[in-house]
Amino acid sequence: MNKIVIITGASRGIGAATALTLASQGYKVCVNYRINKSAANQVVDTIIQQGGQAFAHQADVSQEHEVSELFLAVDRQFGCITHLVNNVGILFPQSKLIDMDAKRINKILTTNVTSYFLCCKEAIKRMQAGSAIVNVSSGAARSGSANEYIDYAASKGAVETLTKGLSIELAAQGIRVNCVRPGFIHTDIHRDGGEPNRVARLTPHIPMQRGGTAEEVAKAIAWLLSADASYTTGTFVDVTGGK
Ligand SMILES: NC(=O)c1ccc[n+]([C@@H]2O[C@H](COP(=O)([O-])OP(=O)(O)OC[C@H]3O[C@@H](n4cnc5c(N)ncnc54)[C@H](OP(=O)(O)O)[C@@H]3O)[C@@H](O)[C@H]2O)c1
Fold first, then answer.
1. Relative orientation angle of helices 13-24 and 37-49, to the nearest 10 degrees
2. Using N-to-C axis directions, what is the helix angle for 13-24 and 214-225, rounded to 10°?
3. Which residue from 7, 24, 71, 197 has the fewest beta carbons nearer than 10 Å?
């Protein structure tokens, strides 16, 4: 199979690590990003230097027309995609629910949930038997993230329900849909939550006594996308150090 993948939010963090991992496994990679063009180009340059194929495409994937353009760009560059990693995720500064407004909540939901629906829709118009989707949830879907960001945690709950339902809708067509749940991973996202050193603070509560790396999450995503996971669909893989 000619493997062609879109990874949303691949300029940094888990998405960037996934782009590098999949490129090393022979995937042609579309590195989606929202604003950070130089970081996205750096991921693409690294892939090309290592002999792979990749290009960067700017799109805010919470916007339907931008998602359409993203998929059309990949059609033109590589052909129909065979694999999708819905990885985009944002959070806002830690806050109790009583202090959240509709603007914040809706931004979280459109970015973290609507984008996953829109990208799945465009992907399955093109996918055939043997294709696969991985959605990136969070341990927050299980914990609820009280006093920090219930809005974010709830968005990840929705991602998990989408994964379950869509996996069943597509199972007979041979298209698999799975999910990874990262725990506390060293990336920039914690800075956006107002606590860059959050992973260090929470390390004593992690059974393995350390935060995870983006590469460790990327490897779980790569396995779920691969033919090695050919009988696995509607499944959730925790990458949480035992938490
Ligand atoms: N890190 C953790 O501890 C952790 C734990 C559990 C789950 N997760 C999940 O893992 C995923 C990746 O998180 P991360 O920590 O790697 O995040 P990150 O380092 O903050 O990177 C976020 C990425 O998403 C992109 N992005 C944000 N909004 C976008 C939009 N509307 N359209 C397109 N791209 C957009 C950013 O692009 P720009 O560079 O252009 O801004 C960036 O590439 C998220 O779904 C997150 O919820 C992370």
1. 20
2. 50
3. 197
Centroid of ligand 1 to alpha carbon of 16 (angstroms) = 10
Residue range(s) defining the domain that contains residue 63: 4-239
- Judge if the beta carbon of residue 15 lies within 6 A of ligand 1: yes
Q: Is 35 in the pocket of ligand 1 (CB under 6 A)?
A: yes
User: What is the model's pTM?
Assistant: 0.98
Separation of 13 CA from ligand 1 center, angstroms? 7
Are the beta carbons of 199 and 206 closer than 8 angstroms?
no
CB within 8 Å of 189: residues ≥ 6 apart: 13, 89, 90, 91
Burial (CB count within 10 angstroms: exposed 0-12, middle 13-18, buried 19+), residue 136: buried
* Residue pLDDT tens, the chain, 243 long: 899 999 999 999 999 999 999 999 999 999 999 999 999 999 999 999 999 999 999 999 999 999 999 999 999 999 999 999 999 999 999 999 999 999 999 999 999 999 999 999 999 999 999 999 999 999 999 999 999 999 999 999 999 999 999 999 999 999 999 999 999 999 999 999 999 999 999 999 999 999 999 999 999 999 999 999 999 999 999 999 999
Amino acid at 117: F
Residues tagged active-site? 152
What gap in Å lies between CA 209 and CA 207, rounded to an integer? 5
Number of separate domains in the chain: 1
